């Protein structure tokens, strides 16, 4: 439970940063695939229970 509580603020900051930088664009005005990054993050969270080792 402790790891999950510490993960939420970091995850929230990471998601907000991806959205902000995605909407602003990168250096020189190029677009960043922020939707793909968020989708990969969501998939990783969803797949984690399937890939976790059982002790």
C-alpha-based Rg, rounded = 14 Å
What overall geometry do the principal axes of the alpha carbons give? elongated
Structural domain tally: 1
Q: Specify the structural class.
A: mainly alpha
Q: What is the share of helical residues?
A: over 70%
Number of strands: 0
Beta-strand content bin: under 5%
N-C termini distance: 17 Å
Mean pLDDT: 75
Helix-strand string = HH
Runs in which pLDDT lies below 50 for 5 or more consecutive residues are none
- Largest sheet features: none
Sum this structure up briefly:
With 55 residues, the chain is mainly α. The chain is built from two helices and no strands. It has one domain (2-51).
Report on the architecture of this protein.
The model has no long low-confidence stretch (mean pLDDT 75). The chain has 2 helices and no strands. It is an all-alpha fold and 55 residues long. It has one domain. Helix 1 runs antiparallel to helix 2 (34-51).
